[in-house]
Specification:
The complex is a heterodimer. Chain A is α/β, with parallel strands linked by helices. Chain A is built from 14 helices and 19 strands. Chain B is built from 8 helices and 18 strands. Classes of the chains: A alpha/beta, B alpha+beta. The interface between A and B is medium-sized, with 25 and 34 residues.
């Protein structure tokens, strides 16, 4: 390999056919005289611009597109040299760091010698060693191309905002399960908003047996084993549901607050009493109608009940999880849009309540397709305010444009699966911790189950990894009509 | 196939390259690879304005063509590295086939130029044709000389191996120069005739003029294909014309070429040969495809030049250096440097 050109932090390297370098590979460009080396990542492989190549190709097809057959008497064996030159490739690389005295700096301000520099492939284990990616809480993500394991540190997810994105059926949920189970393994408290019931069987192996996580996965299905009584509710949480999920206007909210205070003073916080209170409350008819419609929405959701015996309290689950490290799966499958929003508002409100009172230290929140249940204003809340309370969110989506640009800008880690759509790649490339060229070039060619890890987890050295398999029962598969028995 | 020439070419190529080992090589590129076919000095000629109209003959006839090219790869401290390559293309049963020889790379120095050239002549033509011309070939002319030598051998080979066909040469049938010795050219044409072949030589450029205008610019208002016959064409010694010269306009458009047809062939056979060519080859811009292919196949591309430089540096340890071009250095943008762009 030969150093050809450097423009900004893009470096172009001429590579010959016997040197097999692919997109995503890392190269070390060592300048022994300067005592420094550049670490560059291949983001594109192109044909080298060889003079006369067009003539060469045209010559091979001069007969109306058909190859002219013949014999070449090439005694000096120049033809292999021609092929060697013709097949030379140009590696477009992004400079990631400079190595000097075994320490890394993100600088790309110096120029290695074009004639004297030695260029060689940098194996992932060597890179990981150089980048000092050797935390105490390892999570093996999977294998890299050079058959080594990519291990990240769980602490690099702590206090961070993560995004897992890619097109359908590329393995996003699989990675999120892997991260989630590992966090649970390190006694992390995890809450999952499970839209499609994909996380329900994480406690069982693929062949239906109990696995190590069996006792650490708690599934809460609203209106089944997950109900709340009004007495357990904080007014603040309920108002959040009414305002944000059920869009109760301000005047009606004020009246509701009064009704609530009145019932509380009388120790009559039941659904029945609430209904009666609204019916008999002295207020404008329109306000009453508004309150009644919301009341019926709450009742019809099945999530609220006066008798919650036999159901689980989210606090209890979270307290247990705090002690042992567990995952609370909020099963949102078969839940209507409104009910889903009610449940999510409740859970988030409860989490903030518990976190702000320091009853719970921190929570890792996994939110699948969050745009389907998260109100607009929560996006900013989650990435700014709630982070300070200790909610560290991982968004999982196959529609990257449903996540706001400011969320991408603040994302600490991005796990990017294959995308072919230019628009999708454009959206993801707005993330602050990645460069657009890397995202657009590498993500487009990722095979299924391979992801490009970007951000803190990989010390800002984007790496492609084949996500390792999990021995858990697969759920959430698409139901097919044309499927063999 | 007679492989005597390639074998000797290889030997000489390798022998000459041994002397280039470990020398620095200055890059250079010659843009014109083909023989310019500088025409022999001729005196005023006459052009018969009455065309010979041609009727396409579709009788299956083999059409074969020869072309060679040469290129200077670079300069060493003692000489020049050159490469030559030749191609025979033939069209038979509606299919084109080719035989391409080379590239042969030579390190030509003042010391070995005569030896290399004479050795090749002896090996291939085994005759004293060139005693008058070979005495001191100019180093600058050597690429052309060497490729012409290969071209004559390829022409001779075709004239021996093909029968009842049409053989296309690139250039004219003028002889009497170092590159086209009379006896050798006569021998090639005679062999071709014996095998019932007709040699047609197409010149891409001509300096022959009629009434002050290039003969190829004279285009009467007849519809092609036709030939215009020339007469009274006399050459200055030692140049000898071995062919009758025509202007050939074989397709519509503005292109016409000088066409030399073996003088010894009867007139009817000459016209018949062109008519058979029309029926057995493709024409684009009045130029036969077989000859075009021969040219395309032997021409060196920039990629091949780089590959040959790579070969020399790898196999013979020649270090490639890019010395500054003195014209560029002294005259800046006004310098007519030959450096790669």
């Amino acid at each position: 390999m030969k150093l050809y050109k450097k423009e900004g932090n893009i470096i172009q390297i001429l590579s010959f056919p016997n040197e097999t370098v692919e997109k995503g590979d890392y190269l070390l460009i060592e300048d022994a005289d300067a005592g420094k080396a550049l670490i560059a990542q291949v983001i594109d492989v192109q044909f080298a611009s060889i003079p006369g190549i067009l003539e060469e190709l045209l010559r091979s097809l001069p007969d109306g597109g058909e190859v002219v057959e013949g014999e070449d008497f090439d005694p000096l064996e120049i033809a292999p040299h021609i092929t060697y030159i013709q097949d030379a490739s140009l590696l477009v690389c992004k400079i990631r760091a400079t190595v000097e005295n075994e320490s890394l700096s993100p600088s790309s301000s110096w120029l290695p010698s074009r004639s004297q520099s030695m260029i060689k492939k940098l194996s992932i284990p060597t890179l990981l060693k150089l980048a000092k990616m050797d935390g105490k809480l390892p999570i093996v993500l999977g294998g890299t191309k050079d058959a080594s394991l990519l291990t990240i540190d769980a602490s690099s997810l702590d206090g961070r905002l993560n995004i897992i994105t890619g097109k359908k059926e590329t393995g996003k949920s699989h990675l999120s399960k892997l991260l989630m189970l590992n966090l649970v393994g390190y006694k992390g408290m995890v809450v999952v908003f499970d839209l499609n019931g994909e996380y329900l069987s994480l406690g069982t192996t693929a062949d239906g047996k109990r696995n190590a996580y069996h006792d650490k996965i708690h599934v809460l299905t609203p209106s089944q084993n997950f109900k709340v009584s009004l007495k357990q509710l904080n007014l603040h949480v309920l108002l959040g549901i009414l305002i944000h999920a059920l869009h109760l206007p301000g005047t009606s909210t004020r009246e509701f607050r009064r009704i609530w205070q009145s019932l509380k003073e009388r120790d009559s916080l039941t659904l029945h009493e609430l209904g009666e209170a609204i019916r008999n409350w002295h207020c404008n008819q329109l306000v009453r109608d508004a309150l009644f419609s919301r009341y019926h929405a709450l009742v019809n959701s099945g999530f609220f009940a006066d008798d919650v015996g036999g159901t689980m309290l989210v606090e209890e689950c979270l307290f247990k999880a705090k002690e042992r490290g567990e995952a609370v799966i909020i099963n949102l499958r078969n839940t209507s849009t409104i009910d889903r929003q009610i449940v999510v508002e409740y859970v988030l409100g409860k989490l903030v309540e518990l976190l702000s009172s320091w009853k719970v230290k921190a929570v890792f929140l996994f939110a699948e397709e969050a745009h389907l249940y998260l109100r607009e204003t929560y996006w900013d809340d989650i990435v700014t305010r709630m982070r300070h309370f200790g909610i560290f969110t991982t968004f999982i989506t196959n529609q990257p444009d449903t996540i706001r640009e400011n969320i991408y800008r603040q994302a600490d880690n991005i796990f990017l699966f294959n995308f072919t759509n230019e628009h999708d790649l454009e959206v993801v490339s707005r993330a602050a911790r990645v460069d657009a060229e890397t995202v657009k070039s590498i993500a487009r060619d990722l095979p299924p189950h391979h992801c490009l890890a970007l951000g803190r987890v990989v010390r800002d050295f984007p790496m492609v990894v084949r996500v390792k398999a999990l021995d858990v029962k697969a759920m959430g598969e698409t139901r097919l009509f044309f499927k063999d028995n | 196939m007679d492989t005597t020439l390639p074998q000797r070419l290889i030997e000489l190529s390798l022998y000459s390259l041994k002397h280039a080992e470990n020398q620095p090589l200055q890059l250079n590129q010659q843009t014109i690879q083909q023989n310019n076919n500088i025409e022999a000095h001729t005196q005023a000629l006459k052009l018969n304005p009455q065309p010979i109209t041609l009727h396409t003959r579709h009788e299956e006839t083999i059409v074969a063509a020869v072309d060679t090219s040469n290129i200077k790869i670079g300069e060493t401290s003692t000489g020049t590295l050159i490469a030559i390559r030749g191609a025979n293309v033939w069209k038979q049963n509606r299919n084109f086939r080719y035989l391409r020889l080379g590239p042969f790379i030579f390190h030509i120095t003042e010391e070995n130029k005569k030896e290399v050239y004479s050795a090749l002549q002896r090996a291939y033509f085994n005759s004293p044709h060139e005693q008058n011309y070979q005495s001191s070939p100019n180093l600058l002319q050597m690429p052309m000389r060497m490729s012409n030598l290969l071209e004559r051998w390829l022409q001779a080979m075709l004239s021996k191996t093909i029968s009842s066909g049409i053989i296309l040469f690139d250039g004219s049938l003028s002889s009497g120069t170092a590159d086209a010795p009379i006896s050798l050219m006569k021998e090639i044409l005679e062999t071709a005739r014996k095998k019932k072949n007709t040699v047609l030589a197409f010149s891409k450029m001509t300096n022959l003029r009629f009434n002050g205008h290039l003969i190829t610019d004279f285009q009467p208002t007849y519809s092609p294909p036709y030939l215009l016959e020339t007469a009274s064409l006399k050459t200055k010694p030692p140049i000898v014309l071995l062919g009758d010269v025509y202007v050939a306009k074989l397709t519509n458009g503005n292109y016409a070429f000088r066409l030399d047809i073996d003088k010894q062939v009867p007139s009817t056979q000459k016209v018949e040969a062109v008519e058979k060519l029309l029926g057995n080859d493709f024409f684009l811009q009045s130029y036969p495809e077989t000859l075009r292919l021969a040219h395309i196949l032997c021409t060196f591309t920039a990629n091949e030049v780089i590959a040959m430089q790579h070969f020399i540096s790898r196999k013979h340890g020649v270090k490639i250096v890019n010395r500054p071009d003195m014209h560029r250095l002294l005259f800046g943008p006004f310098g007519r440097g030959e450096a790669y762009s």
